[in-house]
Amino acid sequence: MAKMIVSFSVVPIGTGSPSVSKYVQRATQILRQKGYRYKTGAGFTDVELDDYSQLADLLQAIEKALTDMGAQRILYTIKIDRRLDKELHIDEKIAKAEATAERP
């Protein structure tokens, strides 16, 4: 029962390379391992969560993985869409936005 959609970006710094794809791939692997519903975009990943403790757990797991890979600093950008009255789903939000965009 997802009550929040979190859009986040994690940027590792101090890796010695401008490329971040292997770090993004590792973060995505963690999302899959934890069984979260998510969608990765060009700059952010959206994930369906139930509460803030899941978000904290997810960020801690990603941080550990990236520092294990050599990142010396990590910048996080996080946006939270929190509903208290009903469930939220990424696909439904995208479908509504695209349907609205198609109207004349």
Describe this structure in words.
This protein has 104 residues and is an alpha+beta fold. The chain is built from 3 helices and 4 strands. Helix content is 42%, strand content 27%. Strands 2-3-1-4 form a 4-stranded antiparallel β-sheet, covered by helices on one side. A hairpin with a 4-residue loop joins strand 2 and strand 3 (45-49). The N and C termini lie far apart (34 Å). The model has no long low-confidence stretch (mean pLDDT 92). One of its GO terms (cellular component) is cytosol.
Question: How many distinct beta strands?
Answer: 4
Number of domains: 1
Radius of gyration: 15 Å
The major sheet is characterized as:
4 strands, antiparallel
Q: Quickly count the helices.
A: 3
Shape: globular
Summarize model confidence as the mean pLDDT. 92
Strand order of the largest sheet: 2-3-1-4
Class from helix and strand fractions: alpha+beta
CATH topology: Alpha-Beta Plaits
Distance between the termini: 34 Å
Range of strand content:
25-35%
By CATH reckoning, the class would read Alpha Beta
Family: Belongs to the UPF0045 family.
Organism: Pyrobaculum calidifontis (strain DSM 21063 / JCM 11548 / VA1)
InterPro entries: MTH1187/YkoF-like, Thiamine_BP, UPF0045_domain
Protein name: Thiamine-binding protein domain-containing protein
Concise summary:
This is Thiamine-binding protein domain-containing protein. The protein has 104 residues and is of the alpha+beta class. It is built from 3 helices and 4 strands.
